[in-house]
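User: Here's a chain of 109 residues. Predict its fold as tokens.
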Amino acid sequence: MRNRVRDQLVFFQQFRERFKTTGAVATSSRFLANAMTRPLARRQGPVRVLEVGPSTGAVTRKIVAHLQPGDRFDLVELNGAFVEVLRQNFERDADYRRVSGLSEIHACT
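Assistant: Prediction complete.
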């Protein structure tokens, strides 16, 4: 829970400081994340997932939950603060660590 509060604070700060590259006023809801990742739950065989603009990772967390061995997950982010949040998640969060070998953050800062 603490990470999600931190993510919301980072997102709001970046919205205020870098609106042109943040592109939203709030993170994606869990309902949107569930709808966007529903096809991953029904797929068969390995997949490649490209997430462009994951920000603090509201949808990323749902993608991570569906990844399996053999999958590939690429995240492309422009904002350095968001890149840092994502990196911390892949280092510290057990769910993210499980798929860190399948995932790569592309920091386009």
